[in-house]
Write a structure and sequence with these properties.
The chain is an alpha/beta fold and 53 residues long. Strands 2-1-3 form a three-stranded parallel beta sheet, sandwiched between helices. The termini are far apart. The chain is flat, with a radius of gyration of 10 Å. The longest helix has 13 residues. 43% of the residues lie in helices and 26% in strands.
């Protein structure tokens, strides 16, 4: 199963992305900031990381 890290600080955008990932039955983790994203990325082996710049 595909695992995704979602890095998003905007709640509305995060909720939309989570809804889409749930529809496709993906495993995912969410980070609200870069520090938490790095912790998760160093802990888990994600297939995809979604973030904005």
């Amino acid at each position: 199963m595909t695992s995704v890290l979602v890095v998003e600080d905007n709640i509305e955008n995060m909720e939309l992305i989570i809804c889409l990932l749930k529809m496709k039955d993906y495993n995912f983790e969410v980070a609200m900031d870069g520090e938490r994203a790095m912790e998760l990325a160093n802990t888990y082996n994600f297939d995809l990381i979604i973030l904005d710049l």
